[in-house]
Write a structure and sequence with these properties.
Layout lengths: L1 E5 L3 H12 L5 E5 L15 E4 L7 H7 L2 H12 L4 E3 L2 E6 L3 H10 L4 E4 L1 H7 L9 E6 L3 E4 H13 L4 E4 L4 E7 L2 E6 L4 E4 L1 E4 L11 H4 L2 E11 L8 E5 L5 E4 L9 E5 L3 E3 L10 H14 L8 E12 L6 E5 L4 E5 L2 H20 L9 H4 L2 E3 L6
Parallel strand pairs: 1-2, 1-13, 2-9, 5-15, 13-21, 20-22
Antiparallel strand pairs: 3-8, 4-8, 5-7, 6-7, 10-11, 11-12, 14-17, 14-18, 14-19, 15-16, 16-17, 20-21
Length: 377
């Protein structure tokens, strides 16, 4: 079986890895419009947090409990270290701590609760919402995302059955007979027994209109901030709305602290540049001036925007297939896709090769949409 994967971000790369490992696959081609790994991929960032706890969503917390082990398995296979257990601290009203902690511990995570007094004593440089306790998830970690993507691409390039095709922009993916056909911007085509589209926010341009119409493009602004405390966990649930977060780098990394909030995420008509408009930069500076008592706007060393897709009605990612399973298309959802990437890659590769798919715990992936042909459900 010959499989072509479109997309040089984390899901595309790891899906290619899983296809290489699948029995009966003789050739895997990985295609991207730019270099491989893609520097413009949403996943090609310095830091990504892998945590299990999702407040008020026990099913999602249960599914995410396996993400930690998924990344450890990827490290072991690739033979490179890029995942660093650093912990994640999630603030919430004190009365919610016991219930959320119980759900988290049931996933096998190491975690404990903190009272408002303990929280203020351990993290005096953060101003938590009044009455907040927190859950500290010790088994959560940080992936050095850019390092991970380079390591996975290097592993793929060393496999004899893999061919990497950088700088080849795909403009259309269709089915033909029992396989898939990729058409490139220069008019040439490539055929394969199966095609997997995992091109992040660009996936919307390559999937049938019946799927694309259900995908919303979002744009989110992020600050890079130089001061940080070594060994600090990722911290979530900050600000008056509880929607702000900070992401700290491992002690030995030179990456800056990342600061953002859901309030800095908004629908976008199209992908343009990644330059943050000044109003959104100032918005985040205002948020973190309140959250971090010692916040210094002069220490903001960068600000950038990222794009991601989300399914319009349910939110989160979307998996669809057409052409009797000849084409599988995955539309990513920001950091959630990165965290779940090892599980997603296995499930997508399983479906592409015709094996029983391993469950991810994500309803939209475990129950994908099936279209008889492009545009027809």
């Amino acid at each position: 079986m010959r499989i072509t994967v479109v997309g040089g971000g984390v899901v595309g790369l790891l899906t290619a890895v899983e296809c290489v490992r699948a029995p009966g696959v003789t050739r895997v081609d990985l295609v991207d419009a730019g270099p491989i790994p893609s520097p413009t991929a949403t996943s090609n960032d310095r830091l990504r947090v892998v945590r299990a706890l999702h407040r008020g969503e026990p099913a999602l917390t249960s599914a995410a409990g396996r993400a930690h082990w998924g990344w450890l398995e990827v490290e072991s296979l690739i033979g490179s270290r890029f995942y660093h257990p650093a912990g994640a601290l999630t603030a919430m009203p004190e009365q919610n701590v016991a219930g959320e902690l119980a759900v988290l511990i049931a996933t096998g995570a190491r975690a404990w609760g903190l009272s408002p007094t303990e929280l203020a004593g351990r993290y005096p440089w953060i101003r938590f919402p009044a009455g907040s306790g927190a859950v500290l998830e010790a088994t959560a970690g940080v992936v050095l995302a850019d390092h991970a993507l380079v390591a996975v691409a290097r592993w793929l390039s060393s496999r004899p059955q893999v061919r990497l095709h950088p700088h080849q922009r795909v403009v259309e993916v269709t089915q033909h007979d029992q396989g898939g056909v990729i058409r490139f911007a220069d008019g040439t085509t490539r055929t394969a027994d199966r095609v997997v589209v995992a091109a992040g926010p660009w996936s919307r341009e390559l999937v049938p209109a019946a799927v694309a119409s259900d995908l919303t493009l979002y744009r989110q602004s992020v600050l890079s901030y130089r001061p940080q405390s070594p060994g600090m966990p990722a911290v979530l649930g900050l600000g008056p709305a509880g929607d702000a977060w900070l992401m700290s780098a491992p002690a030995h990394s030179d990456a800056s602290l990342r600061l953002s909030a859901a309030s800095a995420c908004r629908p976008a008509a199209a992908m343009t540049d990644r330059v943050t408009p000044d109003r959104w930069r100032q918005h985040l500076i205002g948020v973190f001036t309140e959250v971090l008592p010692g916040f210094d706007p002069a220490a903001v060393v960068d600000c950038f925007d990222g794009f991601y897709l989300s399914e319009r009605t349910r939110g989160g990612p979307l998996l669809a297939s057409y052409g009797a399973g000849a084409v599988w298309a995955y539309a990513a959802c920001g950091g959630m896709s990165f965290k779940f990437a090892p599980q997603l890659a296995r499930a997508i590769a399983d479906r592409a090769v015709g094996s029983t798919p391993r469950p991810t715990g994500l309803e939209s992936v475990d129950n994908p949409r099936f279209l008889a042909a492009a545009g027809k459900e």
